[in-house]
TrEMBL record:
First and last residue of the signal peptide: none
One Pfam match: HIT
Keyword RNA-binding: no
Region described as Disordered: 118-142
Taxonomic classification: Bacteria, Bacillati, Bacillota, Bacilli, Lactobacillales
One MF term in the entry's GO annotations: hydrolase activity
GO terms of biological process kind: nucleotide metabolic process
Motif window: Histidine triad motif: 98-102
Catalytic machinery residues: H100
Protein name, per record: Diadenosine polyphosphate hydrolase
Domain HIT: 5-113
Amino acid sequence: MDDCIFCKIINNEIPSTTIYEDDDIKAFFDISQVTPGHTLVVPKKHVQNIFEYDEELAQKVFKKIPMIARAIKDSNPDIIGMNICQNNGEIAYQSVMHSHFHLVPRYSKDDDFSMTWGDNTGKASNEELQKRADSIKQHLED
């Protein structure tokens, strides 16, 4: 994509701090550095979101995430955890429409990162939950 900032980073048209690169992915520091070491893992193939991945691309991208995450954690003894986030669509906070994974090292409960999860326990009956599950199962591909 001509106007995609991540494609420009992949093609070295925009500088980045790269920590890993191979034929399929590039991992580089997020410019915002929500916490020190905040890294993006990006497929070199332009896909907008997770819904556009085929099995081959998923294997190429996903298999490298644990390796990169371990390297980030091992690089700093102060890292005590890590959030790995992947957002799809503006409603899900995706701001660059080129699929990417955020690896956000965590140093304490007081660092500059948070996630809020709603609790809807008990709001759907067992029957409603089964109906949702059945609908999803109908769309699964083997």
